[in-house]
Specification:
By secondary structure, the protein is mainly α. 78% of the residues lie in helices and 0% in strands. The protein has 12 helices and no strands. The mean pLDDT is 90.
Length: 289
Amino acid sequence: MKTNPLIELVILAAIWGASFLFMRIASPEFGPVLLMALRTLIASLVLLPVLFLKKQHKALHGKYQEIFIVGMFNTAIPFVLFGYATLTLSAGVTSVLNATTPMFGVLVAFLWFKEKPKRNNVLGLVVGFIGVYLLMSDKSTDNASSIILPTIAVLLATFCYGFAANLTKAKLSGIGSLALATGSQVSATLVLLPLSLCFLPDQPISNDAIYAVIVLGVVCTGFAYILFFRLIAAMGPNNAITVTYLIPVFGILWGTMFLQESITTMTIVGSLTILFGVGLTTGVIGKRK
């Protein structure tokens, strides 16, 4: 069924924005490691049949080592870090911090590939990190120590995403997105599932947390990746990646609607500053016709 790509873009942003809501619900009960092990397992079960149906599984042959490494940095490590962060940080704040991913992609490209950044790239990095400070400044007045580690965890997660993007570009540029996403989820599951046996919860899990992890795996990961690939095919990768700017909007919206998270003036200022920095870093802002 063919639909308007712009509508699909908004739907994808709404889904990925909701992932922070579901992590916020499920992480306290499952714990970060078990939650993400289940998330990647469910996503793998969704993506594997699609991979074989489209006959793209052969693309993985001979690239297992590279895909495994990408799976660690693009899924396993950042997912667990996000799970840990949502134990403390709100869904809205976490979704905004997630938008720093393109900034770290540019930074890693400079450090690794020696790609000389443009003036706007450097300015965007500075502006983006000022935005992070502003966003978290009013959260630290009561107990600064309680938000420092979760904030660092999210920034480490987005750094991992930036590293994985550059690694994919360098080593796996000829492999389709569906094969990469499926291989990443399966690789993460192979590592996280055995590890999660050491982090089994002591208390019974509520139905809300169970439903949250199912939706997180099926909709926010498996279905969302498939939708993202459709957008790449329809709009091109540069346009599809603009979903990054919409995710925080829905992250804050869902957190406010369903978890009664508060929105302060500094939340808005910090969020807009981060997005402006990301726009400068990626070249979306300041492009010449």
